[in-house]
Amino acid sequence: MAGVKALVSLSFSGALGLTFLLLGCALEQYGVYWPLFVLMFYVISPLPYFIANRCGDDTDSSSNTCRELSHFLTTGIVISAYGLPVVLARTEVIRWGACGLVMAGNSVIFLTILGFFLVFGGSDDFSWEQW
Q: What's the whole-model pTM score?
C-alpha cells in the first residue's frame, strides 16, 4: 500500500509542476508557448541514469566512472532546463512572470523525478523495472 500512496503523491506533484509550466505559457498576459521547450529536458534528464545502470558494473566501490559521468550529464541537463527560461526572459521573448512560473514548474517536476527514483529506484521487490 505504501507504493500506491507514493505513486499517487508523485503523480499529483507531477501534475502540479506541469500546471505551473502551462500557466507560464497560457495565461493571457504571457501568451507565448516557447517555455514548453523545457519538456524536452524533463524527458532526457533520466536517460543518463538509465544508461549508467545498464552499462555500469554493480560493484559497491565508492568511485564508479560511469555513474559519475551520468550524474554530471544529468546535472548539465537540469541546469539547462533552468537556464532556458532565463535566457528567453533576458531576450524578451517571454516575460519575467512566465519565467518565474516555469522555474517553479521546473523545481516541482525535477523533485518529482528525484522522488520517483528514490521510491522506485531501489533493488527491492517494487521497482520501476516492473513497469
A: 0.84
